Structures are given as structure tokens and as C-alpha cells.
């Protein structure tokens, strides 16, 4: 039974160590554009059922609660908290922030589509709108050389004044993708998420329609990490780790006592 207590305490150490890693990643990305903080979710391991609740205790009575012993805790998943981050004005015409749900679409090197909330775009030498890593926006938006007064509407319509033309020219339409379960998207680094069976297929459409958020030009969405909240979680996790560590020490002392006395 004492060995079982060691095993239970060990699972607690593993769980709190994992939670601390999640908190560390959140704090490390506190200034990452469009970052959504993670949360570690845990669940109990299988219980050892010694006496089933409701089992007969004698000829006339039954156990009210039974006797079940827990075997520890395990990580059930790491979910993303998709609350809106603060929008910060950047005064850069190529910066965009999404107010509400939705993701920008970019083309990955293997030809597949990636999704991101980071709207810090720039132009290539050919005038193509790309991410900081050079991934082109989908659908492609090309800004002709010499274009001025680049404007991106709340619905994603891109317009500019072209040399030799008096009227404003439309350059393209930025479409956003939405998902039934955004938390099911898989992070692959560089602010890029990809579709999974858990997220469901993307619903692509014009910004501001069918539940998709609108686009705000000249702004960037900041990380939704709350430093104070994460520090509180860090202290709580540290204390829980210490308690599980003390449980192992106490159990070890009990084993030593048994070995010395028997």
C-alpha cells in the first residue's frame, strides 16, 4: 500500500511539472503577436475498486459509499484559450488585426494552408503580401509598384491609388477562415496552426459575415496572456509540486521505519 502511495505522488509530480512547462511557455510568449495562451487539463487515473458503492454489507444493509482508492492523475490535454487579445495600433498599413473569431490563411512551403492570428504582414520585391517568414497570404494579394494610400476595409477589401489612375483600384479580397473547434488546431510553430480532425474543416468567407470577425487595419492583436494570472498559477503549481514531493519523502520515511522495526 505504501508503494502505491509513492506511485500516486509520482504522478502528481509529473502533472505539476507539465503544468509548469505550459505556464513557462505562456510567459515566454507574452509579447508574441496573436498568441493564445495554453491551459493544462488533467484527469484522474483509474480507481482501485475494493468495495463497490451499494454492495451488500450484510444480509439487510448496503455500503453507502463503498471503498475506492485513486491511483493518481494524468494529463488529459492542453487546450488553447481563444479570448480576444488587446488590439494595439501600429500605424503600419500592412498590419492587420482580427476583431472576433477567424484566422488569416497562408500558404506553407509544402503547399498546404496554415492559419494564423498574427497580422504583421509585409511586401516582397514583387509586391506580394507575406508573413514575416515569407509565407504568402491566401488568396494572394499583390500590390503594384508605386501604389499609394493602401487601404484594407473591415471586410478585407484591399484598395490603393495606382500611378496614372484617378480612381481607387481594388487589388483583392482578404478572406478569413473559421473553425467549429479552434482549440483543435495543431500548433506547428512560427505562429502557424494547421487543420486537424478535431478542429473540423475551415469555413472560409468574407470578414464580418457568417460569424467571422472583422479586420482592423493598422493594428496588431497582442497575446492574451495575463502576466499576473500566470504568476499566480506558477506559485500555485510550485506549492502543489512541493506537497507531492513531501508526500514521497513521508512515504519513504514510513518504509524505512517498517524496514527497521520488522
Brief overview, please?
This protein has 262 residues and is an alpha+beta fold. It has helices at 2-28, 227-261; strands at 38-44, 48-51, 67-69, 73-80, 87-89, 96-99, 103-107, 113-116, 122-123, 129-130, 137-138, 148-152, 157-161, 169-173, 175-178, 186-189, 192-194, 203-206, 214-217, 219-221. Helix 1 runs antiparallel to helix 2 (227-261).
Verbal overview:
Helix content is 24%, strand content 31%. It contains two helices and 20 strands. With 262 residues, it is an alpha+beta fold. The two termini are 16 Å apart. The radius of gyration is 27 Å and the shape is elongated. The strands form eight sheets. Strands 7, 8, 11, 15 and 18 form a five-stranded antiparallel β-sheet that branches. The protein has helices at 2-28, 227-261, and strands spanning 38-44, 48-51, 67-69, 73-80, 87-89, 96-99, 103-107, 113-116, 122-123, 129-130, 137-138, 148-152, 157-161, 169-173, 175-178, 186-189, 192-194, 203-206, 214-217, 219-221.
Strand segment count: 20
Given helix and strand content, the structural type is: alpha+beta
- Poorly predicted tracts of residues: none
Order of helices and strands: HEEEEEEEEEEEEEEEEEEEEH
Share of β-strand residues: 25-35%
List keywords for this structure.
262 residues; alpha+beta; 5-stranded antiparallel β-sheet; 20 strands; elongated
Secondary-structure topology with pairs:
Elements lengths: L1 H27 L9 E7 L3 E4 L15 E3 L3 E8 L6 E3 L6 E4 L3 E5 L5 E4 L5 E2 L5 E2 L6 E2 L9 E5 L4 E5 L7 E5 L1 E4 L7 E4 L2 E3 L8 E4 L7 E4 L1 E3 L5 H35 L1
Antiparallel strand pairs: 1-4, 2-3, 5-20, 6-19, 7-8, 7-11, 7-15, 9-10, 12-13, 13-14, 15-18, 16-17
Amino acid at each position: 500500500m505504501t508503494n502505491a502511495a509513492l506511485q500516486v505522488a509520482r504522478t502528481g509530480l509529473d502533472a505539476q511539472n507539465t503544468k509548469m512547462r505550459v505556464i513557462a511557455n505562456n510567459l515566454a510568449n507574452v509579447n508574441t503577436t496573436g498568441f493564445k495562451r495554453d491551459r493544462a487539463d488533467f484527469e484522474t487515473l483509474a480507481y482501485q475498486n475494493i468495495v463497490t458503492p451499494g454492495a451488500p454489507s450484510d444480509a439487510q444493509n448496503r455500503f453507502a459509499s463503498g471503498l475506492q482508492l485513486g491511483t493518481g492523475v494524468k494529463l488529459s490535454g492542453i487546450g488553447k484559450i481563444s479570448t480576444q487579445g488587446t488590439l494595439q495600433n501600429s500605424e503600419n498599413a500592412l498590419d492587420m488585426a482580427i476583431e472576433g473569431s477567424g484566422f488569416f490563411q497562408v500558404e506553407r512551403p509544402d503547399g498546404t494552408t496554415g492559419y494564423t492570428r498574427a497580422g504583421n504582414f509585409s511586401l516582397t520585391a514583387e509586391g506580394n503580401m507575406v508573413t514575416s517568414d515569407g509565407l504568402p497570404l491566401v488568396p494572394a494579394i499583390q500590390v503594384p509598384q508605386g501604389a499609394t494610400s493602401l487601404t484594407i476595409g473591415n471586410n478585407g477589401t484591399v484598395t490603393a491609388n495606382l500611378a496614372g489612375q484617378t480612381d481607387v483600384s481594388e487589388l483583392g479580397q482578404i478572406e478569413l477562415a473559421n473553425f467549429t473547434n479552434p482549440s483543435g488546431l495543431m500548433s506547428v510553430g512560427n505562429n502557424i496552426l494547421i487543420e486537424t480532425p478535431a478542429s473540423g474543416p475551415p469555413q472560409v468567407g468574407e470578414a464580418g459575415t457568417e460569424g467571422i470577425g472583422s479586420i482592423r487595419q493598422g493594428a496588431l492583436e497582442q497575446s492574451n496572456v495575463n502576466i499576473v494570472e500566470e504568476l499566480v498559477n506558477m506559485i500555485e503549481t510550485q506549492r502543489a509540486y512541493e506537497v507531492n514531493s513531501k508526500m514521497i519523502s513521508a512515504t519513504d520515511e514510513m518504509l524505512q521505519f517498517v524496514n527497521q522495526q520488522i
